[in-house]
Amino acid sequence: MIHIQHEVEYGHTIINFALKFSDRKTVSISVQPDCQVLVTAPEGTVLSRVQELVHKRARWIQKQQQYFQQFLPRTPDRKYVGGETHLYLGRQYRLKLVKADRSFLKLSGGYLIVHHPDISLSRNVEEVLYCWYRTRAEQKFRERFEQWLSNFLQIHSIALPELRIRRMKSRWGSYALSGRITLNLELIKAPVDCIDYVIAHEICHVIYPHHGPKFYKLLESIMPDYLTKKMKLEFSQS
Ligand SMILES: [Zn+2]
What we know:
Radius of gyration: 20 Å
CATH superfamily of the largest domain: Metalloproteases ("zincins"), catalytic domain
Largest sheet: 4 strands, mixed
CATH class of the largest domain: Alpha Beta
Strand content: 25-35%
Distance between the termini: 32 Å
CATH architecture of the largest domain: 2-Layer Sandwich
Number of strands: 11
Bound molecules: zinc ion
Structural class: alpha/beta
Strand order of the largest sheet: 1-2-4-3
Order of helices and strands: EEEEHHEEEEHEEEHHH
C-alpha cells in the first residue's frame, strides 16, 4: 500500500502524516506505534481540509506520539553535564563545560567544549550544543544536498527542491509535494554516508512521492548500496 506523505506546521514543529482515501464518510486520524500519523479521508477530500483537521488535532497527535515514544528504541536521556558523550557525524565526543563571558562551542580533540556564563543549567548547555549542531548541519547538509542534486540533475530533469532543516521526532527526512525537502537536525549526529542516504532518498521522492518499486529502483540507480547505509543509520544511534 502506498501512502503519500504530507505535512502541517504546528508552532515550531512539523507534523508529518500519510494520507489514504477510502469510501468512509468521515476523516479519521490515528497515530501508529512507530509514531507515524495515518489519516484516512473520504474520496475527494481536498488536502487543505485534511491539513486543517490535522492541525486542529495536533496537540492530541503529539500526546499520542509522546506516549509511543517511550517504547521506541532511543538514545538514553541526555543530562548535558560534563563527561557525557554526544555524537557528531557518527563519532562520540565528550562534553566539557567551561564558564565564560559569552556562549559558544569549540570542538577540540575528542571534546565538545561548551562555553557559557552559567554552565550549571543543563538547558544552557543544550542550547549552546544545538545552536552549534544547527550551524554545522546548515553547512554539511547543504553541501551534501547540492552535491547529490547536481549528480541527480545530470540524469533526471526535476524542479529544484528547497531544503529545510528542523528538529523532528520520528523521521530523518521528508518530502512535501510543495517541493520542499526537510532534514532532521538530529541527522548531524550520524555518519556522512547516512546523511547522504537520507538526502538521496528524499531527492528521489521528487520523482516518485511514494515507496513503490519504481522509487526503490531509482534510489538504487543513484546509490547502489543504499540498503547498507540505511541499516547503518538505523543501528548507529546510541
Ligand atoms: Zn521516503
